[in-house]
């Protein structure tokens, strides 16, 4: 966590129209409840980013600033867990989310169903909205219900001991907000999420009753132009490899892919689809943040830089989709992925140049 | 600096211009199944999970989408009904006047790609083609929503609370000469259903 500049006053929460279904308690009491899910669904994001947006918004922060002002690209680790919420930062999510913000993101791993429930109940009483790891196979509102195993995240917003029922929120399409029996969520959280061939990307690693605690440790920094310039400069340095990953690591990943495919077959391609999701989503969030900041500050070159960043997020589609369909002819798919990867890397370079240009010229 | 209008355009420049639309049938390029029925769910290939849209999502025959006429063959859930874009070269009839290419298209995730326009003189221009997700999403690039399905087909079931989308997208052809061929993007995310070429005089 890096906080730039001096703390600003607590921002006034925005008022949103729409149905209200969550009443924050504890430290979030008085914060604006989340409204209808579609307002915060973004088709580039996975459940990880979408859920974080909702929870940060509940805490009264501008989630786009919190998730979109920092832009990182972590090197792909050896072990890429097959879940929808895979992130190369592993447990160190705060190195990629809420950069420049006083934010703590902590995974908890309770030992059994009882402890899993107790921790969630305690978090709710403390005003925390837990983001819990689940296997979609057991959730009646997911299209994968009793069909496909897939590691997913949803938010628990309440628990009613009288009905032994949680209130949950899952903004990912088809989106669900409502009750879920305690034993159903427990089964989903404890599932082995077995790799039975039903899902090539997100099966094979159990939720292990994990849940993510999102804790806002202070006021959100005020997004002044000085603050933003420093943040953007730091982003560019990081993407150029100052922190040991960034674009050099991504280029090395694509360079090594054909050899990995020759040795292992389609597995590295399926991995590529997975590792591309957070990178695509976070480029998209950064682009949205820049577009919003450019409007607010009246800086046209910043808007143009935001568009260049957005092209990066869209260019991940070619990489991910050619990888996803690679099982039939892995070597040909690897060639396509590398070709899309080169386009993507050029897009990153152009975006960094555009951001640097926007720092000095309005 | 905001530019000033010194004098409005004269009546002559406000005259209606003639738009000539040429709907093209893409059947010979079809290589993928996007539409299925309850009996053919397993044939869907709109994405790697085998999702597809219900037959009937997109009207067939000569259809109009926001003033543009397209030719859409009727799908049967078995034969291919769309072009999954892998860099195919589509030749147009000789002397095709083109100012716009209109495409009925959708994408497995939001996509921004290059299409190459080959003109009669041999000139080639790359142009952007921008397509939003077939999965629930708002049109990101200002496209026209051509169709939204009432459900999403999975290989083993129908999900009635999830809809899929087909977009009407346009690409400019800026040279004032006939268009000879179109190189589609080499990006398997893109699923193309129909093309109409429009010339404006």
Automatic annotation (TrEMBL), chain A:
Pfam families associated with the record: BtrH_N (PF14399)
InterPro entries: BtrH_N
Protein's name in the database: Butirosin biosynthesis protein H N-terminal domain-containing protein
Organism expressing this protein natively: Streptomyces filamentosus (Streptomyces roseosporus)
All residue ranges annotated as the Butirosin biosynthesis protein H N-terminal domain in the record: 67-171
TrEMBL record, chain B:
Official protein name in the record: Uncharacterized protein
Organism: Streptomyces filamentosus (Streptomyces roseosporus)
Superkingdom to which the source organism belongs: Bacteria
